[in-house]
From TrEMBL:
<dbReference type="GO" id="GO:0046872">
    <property type="term" value="F:metal ion binding"/>
</dbReference>
<dbReference type="Pfam" id="PF06733">
    <property type="entry name" value="DEAD_2"/>
</dbReference>
<keyword id="KW-0347">Helicase</keyword>
<keyword id="KW-0411">Iron-sulfur</keyword>
<comment type="similarity">
    <text>Belongs to the helicase family. DinG subfamily.</text>
</comment>
<keyword id="KW-0378">Hydrolase</keyword>
<dbReference type="InterPro" id="IPR006554">
    <property type="entry name" value="Helicase-like_DEXD_c2"/>
</dbReference>
<dbReference type="InterPro" id="IPR045028">
    <property type="entry name" value="DinG/Rad3-like"/>
</dbReference>
<keyword id="KW-0413">Isomerase</keyword>
<dbReference type="GO" id="GO:0003677">
    <property type="term" value="F:DNA binding"/>
</dbReference>
<dbReference type="Pfam" id="PF13307">
    <property type="entry name" value="Helicase_C_2"/>
</dbReference>
<dbReference type="InterPro" id="IPR011545">
    <property type="entry name" value="DEAD/DEAH_box_helicase_dom"/>
</dbReference>
<keyword id="KW-0234">DNA repair</keyword>
<dbReference type="InterPro" id="IPR014013">
    <property type="entry name" value="Helic_SF1/SF2_ATP-bd_DinG/Rad3"/>
</dbReference>
<dbReference type="InterPro" id="IPR042493">
    <property type="entry name" value="XPD_DNA_FeS"/>
</dbReference>
<keyword id="KW-0408">Iron</keyword>
<dbReference type="GO" id="GO:0005524">
    <property type="term" value="F:ATP binding"/>
</dbReference>
Amino acid sequence: MSYSIAVRALCEFTAKVGDLDLRFTPSPTALEGIVGHRTVASRRSDGYQGEVALEGQYQTLKVKGRADGYDPVQNCLEEVKTYRGDLSKQPTNHRQLHWAQAKVYGWLMCQKLDLAQINLALVYFDIVSEKETCLVEAFSAEELKGFFEHHCQLFLRWAEQEMAHREARNGAAQQLAFPHADFRPGQRHLAESVFKAVSTGRCLMAQAPTGIGKTVGTLFPMLKALAPQQLDKVFFLTAKTPGRKLALDATQVILDSATAPPLRVLEMIARDKACEHPDKACHGESCPLAQGFYDRLPAARQAASELSLLNQNALRDVALKHSVCPYYLSQEMARWADVVVADYNYYFDFSALLFGLAQANNWKVAVLVDEAHNLVERGRQMYSASLDQSTLNGVRKTAPEPLKKALQRVNREWNALHNLQLAPYQAYDKPPEKLLQALSSCSASIGDYLNDHPQGLDSALQNFYFDMLQFCRVAELFDEQFLFDISKRDLDRKRNLSQLCLRNVVPAGFIRPRLTAARSTVLFSATLSPRHYYADLLGTPASTVWIDVESPFHADQLKVHIVSQISTRFVHRQSSLAPIVELIARQFTQCPGNYLAFFSSFDYLQQVAQLLAETHPHINLWSQSRGMGEGQRQDFLDQFTAHSQGIGFAVLGGAFGEGIDLPGARLIGAFIATLGLAQLNPVNEQLKHRMAAIFGAGYDYTYLFPGVQKVVQAAGRVIRTQQDQGVVMLIDDRFGDSKVKQLLPRWWSVAPSILLSVE
C-alpha cells in the first residue's frame, strides 16, 4: 500500500518553520495568479514547457505535482510565485518554503530526464508592475535527491501512521453496526437512500420529518461507504450551533458503540469563538500562540491525531498544552480528520477552506447538508456584498494621508450616484461603472499601502477594505441572478447617506459546482417542499434523487387546529391581540403544560405577552429578546422542564423555530400566530419581480414557500418521539387556503377550525 501526496502538501508539512504570521499583506487573487503565470510562460522561448507533470517514489510514498515550467535549452526549472508589494519584506520562512518546493520538483525532473544537474529558478512576478525577479541556483542531482529523500523521510512516519489509520478505519467501518437496537420507522429508508446515493455518485434530497433521527440516519451509511467508495472524508455541514451539537452527539453515539471504527471527528468553529487572545494580532511579535507556531505544530498535530473526538474543548486543550493557536490547529487537523463537522460557509463560501483543501488534494469526499432548507438564504448571504456610506465617512476621517484621495473619489462617485435618486429605495439594472472603477482603484491603493505598512491600518479601515474587495468580486459576477440597489436614509437631512447592495437572489450557480465536486452530496431537512423550489434555488443536478421519508408519527399524536377567525396581517394586528390571548389562556387552562408561542416580530410578541401577563397573571411566561447570546438562549430553553408549566414566546424563523429538541412534557404544544411571510418591503418586492421573471412564481418563491417552511419547522418542535402527544394552533385565516394546506406535512390531520367567543 502506498501513500500519495502532492509536492506542495509535502513541503508544507516538512518545510514550514517559525511563526504563524497573518499580518495582512494582500496577495494576488486566484485569477491574478493564473494570469501572472500565463504572462511569465508567454515570455519564454518556443521550446519552453509549461505545467510539467512530475512524480516520484520514496519507499511507500508517492510524490506528484506539476512544475510551473522547464526550459530545456537553459536546463532550468522554474517555480513561479505571483506577489504584490515589496518583495524584500517577504518573511524568511515563506522564501524557505518556496525553495523547498523548487528543490523537490528539481529532483523529480532530474529523475525523469536522467539529469546530472539542473538550474532552479524562483520567479517572483509582480502583478502590478509585471516585472520578474529571478533567483537562480544550480544544483546537482545528488544534492536534490538527498533533499527529496530527507523530506520524504520526515513525512514517512506520519504517512505510515495515516495508512495504518485508514486501513483500520475502513476495515472497521465495514463491520460497523447500527448504534441503536433498531432503526426508527423511516430511518432505515433514509439510511439506505443515502448509501445508494454515495454508491452511485449522485446527489440526494431527502425530506424527512423531525424526530426521525436524521443525523445518525445519514452519518451511519456514509461511514459504511468509506471503504467501498474509497472516501477520504465526510463533511457534515450545519447552519447553526445546535445542529453542530446534534452532529457531534451523533458521532459520539457511534464512537461509543461496540463496533465503532477508529475515527477522527473534528469540530470547526468560527475564528472569533476560538481565539484565545482577541486583543492581539495573528503574528509572532504579538501573540504568544503564533510565535514559533510551526515549530510546535508537529507535536500538537501528533497529540490531536490520537484523539477520536476533537470537539472545541478537546482541541483547545491540545492546542494550549502545546502553546499553539486552537483555531489554526483545527485548520491543520481538517487535513487529517475523517469526519469534519462545520458550518455551511466552510464548504460553500467563495473562499471555503474545506472545499479548497478537497480540490487541492484531490480528496474524494461525501457531503451531508443538515437542515438544507437554510442553504437558500445562507447562500444568498455568502454571495452578496454591501457597502455603507456612514462607514466610509468614518474611515475617511482616520485614514492615513496617502489614502484619503482614493477614499474621497469613492465618496464623490457614491454621492453622484445617489443624488440622482429621489426615492428611499431603488433597484438598478447593473452596478455603475464609475463607482466600481473608484472602488477598484481605492482597493489597489490600500493594498499597496498595506504592503509597505502591514500594521498601519486600524480595524475599521481594514474591514472596509475587505468589504470593498467582496463588493468588487461580486460585481464581476453580476448577472440576472443578482440585484443592485441603493437604500437612502436620513432623508430629512440636507446630506443623506445610503447603503449599496449587490444581492444574490439565486445562489444555484455557485452552489451547484460544490454539490457536484463531491462524490455525493445529501441535502436533508424536514422541509424541502416543494421540490422544484429548492432544486431551482440550490442548483441540484438533473440526476438528483428526491425522497419523502414516511413519518414515524401518527395523526392522533398531534392535534392541528386552524384558527380562521383571526387575521394576523399587520393592518389587523391590534384587533388580533385579545383573541390570541384568550385562545392561549383557554388552551393552557384546559391542558396545562409547556408551550411555545411564535409571532412574526418582536413587537407583536411583546404586545401579546404583555396583554397575557395583565389578564392572566397566573400563567408563567418568558420571552425571546433581541440579540440573545448562546448563554441566554440556553437559559430560555432550560425553563422547559418535565415538571414546569408555562409559555415561551419566540419569533418565528429565529433561534427557537428549529434545531431544538424538547421531547415529552418539556413541550406539549405550539401557537403559531403568523403565516411566516417575509415583510412586505421594496427589497422583497424586487425579489418577487425577479423570481417571477426567472421562475414564473414571484409570490410563491418570495413569500409563500419560505413562510410555510418556517411554520412547519416551528410546529415540528412539538412531536419529537413516538410517545409524544401535543397540539398546534395555526392562527390566521390564510391557513385555511387550499394552497397553504398542500404545503403542510402529509401525516398531519387538520381538525375543523376552532370557534372563538372573543372578537
